[in-house]
């Protein structure tokens, strides 16, 4: 998993190579091995500097989401998840404060926890590799980077550059990462380790992180300045407009960065852990992790990942959406209101209704308040159609229904899919709401509601 070699100049080369894995990932065994190895190298007086590299073409693809085991479920709380992720935070912080200069040398991709590890190093070098990507994609799973990403990234490149990367989960090429200042150098793959050694022997790598020095301030305007406040205000407005408050991680990331940059790094990392714990325990994160990660992986292995936009599931969902929208219009709701309601709950496929020009926003507080309930009514109609296709055997599993409804019918990602939405609300409560809407409930779902069943087991999000 971790091997180290110390050369005649005292430079330790620490190589990551996870056995039995196609790519390196961070799990608890790796975290503990890293902590122990850093402690050993720190205590060795012969070691003058450390290079962390990978024995694979990529650096680290991210955290193994099996680490979610023990963070959620019966007997756990947000504090449980916060304390569990602390093991990773502490290991990276021990590396950062070991008192010896540390260089991260990446042959290829570093995502999620892999990039967080690189950010905890004092100097970051990558090989010129057109396939390599760098980023913090945790938001796409409904969570935030929990091992320092929300705190180190803005301290490295500034608030204005960091927020879009954190809020969008965008992946960068090596050249883009260098341009932003996430990477310090690019070199040819064959020269990567030699370049890292030169950086150490030439004294270009400090033994402390900039934020551990007295008087440190992130690049850009001071965090308490009006200019910085305007950056947060703009980002907050954009998040509300695009996410419609359906994605708790977006607001949590903004708050985490805003609060953390006003604190010393250790207190800031604690703030990050607390936000991480609350998100992991939320319904949205559980649904997104289950569907967007585990279900997609399983369907890919089974050769069932491709969604057919003209298939039975997608057609049934779209027909249900259009039919319910027409019923709502017959009840007196305007086409513009119905489409705004669909957008408010995150539907990327809007109902087929006649509407004049652009969708007007409303200044009427009562109408704004009515958008979400109306949007949820549309989602319930689509979810019933998805449940019926499962009953008929048109899809092989609840996971397939969820993934394909998102991909082919525009169902909102934050729900985890239509059947995950039913689980999120609870089958009995969901069925009661459908009956109040005068919607026909499939036999299988009615029985599930009566028996207290679910489409997905409570353990699936941490499979």
TrEMBL record:
- SUPFAM superfamilies xrefs: 6-phosphogluconate dehydrogenase C-terminal domain-like, ClpP/crotonase
**Could you provide one GO biological process annotation from this protein's UniProt record?**
fatty acid beta-oxidation
Judging by the UniProt lineage, the source's domain of life is: Bacteria
> Which CDD domains does this chain map to?
crotonase-like (cd06558)
Q: Which InterPro entries does the record associate with it?
A: 6-PGluconate_DH-like_C_sf, ClpP/crotonase-like_dom_sf, Enoyl-CoA_hydra/iso, FA_oxidation_alpha_subunit
GO MF term set: enoyl-CoA hydratase activity; long-chain (3S)-3-hydroxyacyl-CoA dehydrogenase (NAD+) activity
Protein name, entry field? Enoyl-CoA hydratase/carnithine racemase
């Amino acid at each position: 998993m971790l091997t180290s070699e110390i050369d005649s100049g005292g430079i330790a080369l620490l190589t990551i190579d996870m056995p039995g894995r196609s790519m390196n990932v961070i799990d608890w065994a790796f975290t503990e091995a890293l902590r122990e190895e850093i402690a050993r190298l720190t205590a060795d007086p012969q070691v003058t500097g450390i290079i962390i590299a990978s024995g694979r073409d990529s650096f680290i693809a991210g955290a193994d989401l099996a680490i979610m085991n023990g963070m959620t479920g019966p007997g756990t709380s947000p504090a449980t998840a916060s304390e569990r992720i602390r093991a990773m935070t502490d290991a990276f912080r021990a590396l950062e404060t070991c008192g010896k200069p540390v260089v991260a040398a990446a042959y290829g991709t570093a995502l999620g926890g892999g990039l967080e590890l690189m950010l905890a190093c004092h100097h970051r070098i990558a090989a010129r590799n057109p396939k390599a990507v760098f980023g913090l994609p945790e938001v796409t799973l409904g969570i935030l980077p929990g091992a320092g990403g929300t705190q180190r990234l803005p301290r490295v490149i500034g608030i204005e550059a960091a927020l879009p990367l954190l809020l969008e989960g965008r992946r960068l090429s090596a050249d883009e990462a260098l341009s932003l200042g996430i990477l310090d150098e690019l070199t040819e793959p064959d020269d990567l380790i030699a370049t890292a050694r030169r950086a150490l022997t030439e004294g270009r790598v400090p033994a402390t992180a900039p934020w551990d020095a007295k008087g440190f301030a992130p690049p850009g305007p001071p965090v308490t300045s009006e200019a910085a406040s305007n950056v947060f205000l703009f980002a907050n407005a954009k998040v509300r407009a695009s996410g419609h408050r359906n994605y708790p991680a977006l607001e949590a990331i903004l708050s985490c960065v805003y609060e953390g940059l006003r604190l010393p790094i250790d207190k800031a990392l604690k703030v990050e852990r607390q936000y991480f714990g609350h998100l992991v325990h939320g319904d949205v994160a559980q649904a997104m992790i289950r569907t967007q990660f585990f279900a997609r992986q399983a369907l890919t292995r089974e050769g069932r990942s491709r969604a057919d936009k003209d298939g039975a599931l997608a057609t049934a969902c779209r027909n249900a959406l259009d039919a319910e929208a027409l019923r709502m219009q017959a009840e007196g709701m305007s086409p513009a209101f119905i489409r705004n309601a669909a957008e408010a709950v995150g539907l990327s496929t809007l109902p087929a209704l006649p509407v004049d020009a652009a969708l007007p926003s409303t200044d009427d507080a009562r109408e704004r308040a009515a958008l979400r309930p109306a949007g949820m009514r549309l989602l319930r109609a689509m979810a019933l159609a998805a449940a019926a296709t499962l009953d008929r055997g048109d899809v092989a599993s609840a996971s397939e229904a969820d993934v394909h409804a998102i991909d082919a019918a525009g169902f909102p990602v934050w729900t985890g899919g239509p059947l995950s939405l039913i689980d999120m609300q609870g089958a009995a409560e969901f069925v009661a709401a459908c009956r109040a809407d005068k919607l026909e409930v499939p036999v299988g779902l009615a029985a599930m509601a009566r028996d207290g069943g679910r489409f997905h087991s409570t353990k699936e999000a941490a499979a």
